[in-house]
Amino acid sequence: MQGAVRRRVLAALAGLAAWWSVCGVVWAIPNLQNLIPFGKRVEADPTKTYLLTEDQGPWMILACSFSGPGAEQQAHELVLELRQRFNLEAYQHKRTFDYTEPVQGLGYDKYGNPRRMRYRQNVKIEEIGVLVGNFDSPDEPAIQATLHKIKYARPDCLDLEKRKTSYQRFAGLRELQRRLSPDPEKKEMGPMRAAFVTRNPLLPEEYFRPTGIDPVILQMNTGAPYSLLECPGKYTVRVASFRGEATMKVNEPLEKRSLFGRGPSKLEQAAEKAHRLTMALREKGIEAYQWHDIFESVVTIGSFDSVGTPRPDGYVEINPDIHAIIETYRARPRPLPNGLIGLEPKMLDGIPFDVQPLPVRVPKVTARSAGR
Question: Where do the domains of the chain lie?
């Protein structure tokens, strides 16, 4: 890539020297296991305990919770059944609620101090929740389709007729309410009908505060030919990605950094490839866009308002136009020596596309990221 685009990338990266570790834009990739036809089997190893970590989510579905002496075992059984039978990424997470400490109540005592109160039950309660999914947004179609699937699911480990004891919170009460309900739809729901969308509890509050696009990343992309900022839709399809430098020593003199050394840096090379591929696609009349951040440059194709349509079985019928792009640019099987089969990426102008294109969210400029 020559001229203005390269200078823009260099100028923006120079401004990043003091805080290179700050991330720019987080690509919101829909959970592909819920997209047809890209569903794949979720791991379900009975010898493993699938504990929730910061890597899941950030948005999830709380299927149900357990408490009592057998809570951990039943939670483990549910996690495995959701994975094996329903092909859902399920995890368990333990939380402790402490009702033994005094709390500040309403009003003041006779000395003018805030009133101190205690809970009626002086106990600590341990609950184990079962959470499902890896969702990037509470608005994506997959999360609502999965929620519907969970509400109507009937796992064997929660069936009160098949097991004498259940440690699911309020299981008996909810089952009684279901049987007495005049609503036929509620009667069809299963023991997890109270499931709801929530955040990953291990992520900090700051993670969920909207920040828009980082100003430096915005500077890198503003004015670039066919910038992804110009894409009018909510989603696009990432067809090619080129990694740049992964780290930089902040205290190292500028002249010694690879970015300013002899020859173009890996990040510059990545930006150049993305620019060239975008222009080559545009010359063929294809709606292509380019995007650059501090770690990679990508090329996307198309502009869409949704990834697909939710189905009652918990999957999402993928948008046919998105599916067509994925099929057009994905890698093709190629025979290798010794009877093996490899994948050969598609090429254009000597530049390879990704092995598996993915639908992604389009970054949007907010008043905060624009500096207003």
Answer: 3-25+212-361, 32-199
